[in-house]
């Protein structure tokens, strides 16, 4: 008698191999049979007409605060994620001295747009060191597995205080102390270390975050400290500027220590072909023996602009500012007033800098997100932009935007792709996905609460990239499943999951593929202190299973909490070794 048997499903096992019809038997949290299962299960799921996949392994999330109070880690768990890796981009909440709590909260709020009030109320702060933070996570029940990395900004502030926060050069003594903290974190179970080297990541007061300009000596010393604890990952967000200098220390670290270096790769509107150069440099580095991988996204880094979002096209107009602080329903009543509408449309935005101008007046890059049939169009045509609609209709572009935002009783949204959409199509993403040195990532689950919800990436990969894309080639379902299971798991040394094979961890999704869909974004206020966040729900997940336990059925949580903290890289099973 097995604990659980899933029967008659179309099994897509995560290896990239062809799908097949079969059963899966689970005992003690592990897969014990794949194919034809004769024995009965204490519970059985009939997967006829459904697909069965490994659970999604999302390696780029920012649940570092939310994980301390939310056992569900939504929205990610709603989208079939069974393992989430946190601590990316150099931000996190350990190690920390008591007088730095507020500083770390403000840093996370500035870099990742997570409400500071929610973090302040929700985080218990029952730790100081990184190992103590892991112990705190380990003691809490949750529906999915979590793992994390040591964040550079917290380490720098812990060792160097204000000098570290101001990005002053580290002394040899500082570097030694930081390396010791990273080693301590690795020994306790961190999967790696993360940093940020992009000017896009700024604090609330507009300064680049700690570690952005750290010298190669500091980074290499940290890499050497990590190397003593086996396979690990050095993750970073970087402008890669100048790329040659960045690749010099990245190669040196990877080759000297065996650490895998991974960086975020998105198409820049300022240099739309530069991603090709970076992937060429990545291939060259790997040919020389350096383990370097680029983390890519499955759609643009795009803002969802609405009246409740962090930003929208009227945010800098004084006539809007006059009502901006009203509760939403009172503000909405004003926005419905024709006189208020006329005043806002007649007003001019105050200067906001180049990026602010794009976000408030870049009508050539703004699009309707939710189509009349309910479809969410993340790959819109240039002729569907607000500017194009204005040109053909004769209406003012800001008037079109205003009226779109007023749809759904003031809960309409405009989509503004900022990165990864320089040429108004996904052709470059398709090419990136076929590069052997890329890995699917960058969902930013839990972050950018007021303007983005890319935690829906795993579902979007199946719906858009294998089924619905109309503007270019799609991808085989088997490849897409492998990209967000085996491939993501292996990058971080999580070799016990991501493949449906005997001996592997029993993390699975049972999916109604034809009925799979992402719902429209909505703003909710369910974080601590009634903090705001944008969410997206999914339809079509018949069951999500973690360690052999059903955690979600038809989109509803079962109440089971089999998730755990993953400490360190997980061993290669016989099933994987035989591939």
TrEMBL record:
Residues 43-552 form the Amidohydrolase domain. It holds the Pfam family Amidohydro_3. It comes from the Bacteria. PANTHER family: COLLAPSIN RESPONSE MEDIATOR PROTEIN (PTHR11647:SF1), HYDRANTOINASE/DIHYDROPYRIMIDINASE FAMILY MEMBER (PTHR11647). This is N-acyl-D-aspartate/D-glutamate deacylase.
């Amino acid at each position: 008698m097995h604990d659980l048997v899933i029967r008659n499903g179309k099994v897509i096992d995560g290896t990239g191999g062809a799908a097949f019809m079969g059963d899966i038997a689970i005992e003690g949290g592990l897969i014990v049979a794949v194919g034809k299962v004769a024995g009965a299960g204490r519970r059985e799921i009939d997967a006829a007409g459904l697909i069965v996949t490994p659970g999604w392994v999302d390696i780029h999330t920012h649940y570092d605060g939310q994980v301390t109070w939310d056992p569900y880690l939504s929205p990610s768990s709603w989208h079939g994620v069974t393992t989430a890796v946190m601590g990316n981009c150099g931000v996190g909440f350990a190690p920390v001295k008591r007088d730095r709590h507020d500083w770390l909260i403000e840093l996370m709020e500035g870099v990742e747009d997570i409400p500071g009030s929610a973090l302040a109320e929700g985080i218990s702060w029952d730790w100081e060191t990184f190992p103590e933070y892991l112990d705190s996570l380990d003691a809490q029940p949750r529906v999915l597995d979590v793992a994390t990395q040591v964040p550079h900004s917290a380490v720098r502030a812990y060792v160097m205080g204000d000098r570290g926060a101001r990005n002053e050069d580290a002394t040899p003594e500082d570097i030694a102390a930081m390396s010791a903290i990273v080693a301590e974190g690795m020994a306790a179970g961190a999967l790696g270390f993360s940093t940020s080297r992009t000017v896009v990541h700024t604090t609330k007061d507009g300064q680049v975050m700690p570690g952005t300009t750290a010298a190669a000596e500091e980074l290499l010393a940290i890499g050497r400290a990590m190397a003593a604890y086996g396979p690990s990952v050095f993750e970073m967000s970087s402008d890669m500027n100048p790329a040659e200098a960045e690749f010099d220390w990245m190669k040196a670290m990877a080759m000297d220590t065996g650490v895998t270096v991974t960086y975020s790769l998105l198409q820049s509107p300022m240099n739309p072909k530069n991603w090709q150069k970076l992937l060429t440099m990545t291939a060259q580095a790997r040919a020389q023996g350096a383990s370097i991988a680029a983390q890519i996204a499955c759609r643009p880094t795009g803002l969802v602009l609405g009246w409740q979002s962090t930003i929208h096209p009227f945010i800098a107009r004084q006539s809007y500012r006059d009502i901006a602080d009203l509760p939403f329903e009172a503000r909405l009543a004003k926005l419905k007033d024709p006189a208020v509408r006329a005043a806002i449309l007649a007003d001019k935005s105050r200067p906001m800098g180049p990026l602010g101008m794009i976000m408030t007046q870049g009508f050539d890059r703004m699009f309707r997100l939710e189509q009349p049939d309910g479809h969410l169009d993340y790959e819109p045509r240039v002729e569907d932009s607000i500017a194009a609609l204005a040109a053909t209709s004769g209406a003012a572009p800001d008037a079109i935007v205003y009226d779109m935002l007023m749809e759904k009783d003031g809960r309409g949204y405009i989509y503004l792709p900022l990165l990864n959409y320089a040429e108004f199509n996904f052709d470059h993403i398709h090419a990136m996905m076929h590069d052997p040195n890329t890995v699917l990532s960058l969902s930013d689950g839990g972050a950018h609460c007021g303007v983005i919800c890319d935690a829906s990436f795993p579902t979007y990969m199946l719906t858009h990239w294998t089924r619905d894309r109309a503007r270019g080639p799609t991808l085989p379902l088997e490849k897409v499943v492998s990209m967000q299971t085996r491939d993501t798991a292996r990058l971080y040394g999580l070799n016990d999951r991501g493949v449906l094979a005997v001996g592997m961890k029993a993390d699975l999704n049972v999916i109604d593929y034809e009925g799979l869909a992402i719902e429209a974004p909505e703003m909710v206020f369910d974080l601590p202190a009634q903090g705001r966040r944008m969410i997206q729900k999914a339809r079509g997940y018949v069951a999500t299973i973690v360690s052999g336990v059903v955690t979600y059925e038809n989109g509803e949580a079962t109440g089971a909490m089999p998730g755990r903290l993953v400490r360190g890289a997980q061993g290669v099973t016989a099933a994987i070794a035989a591939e």
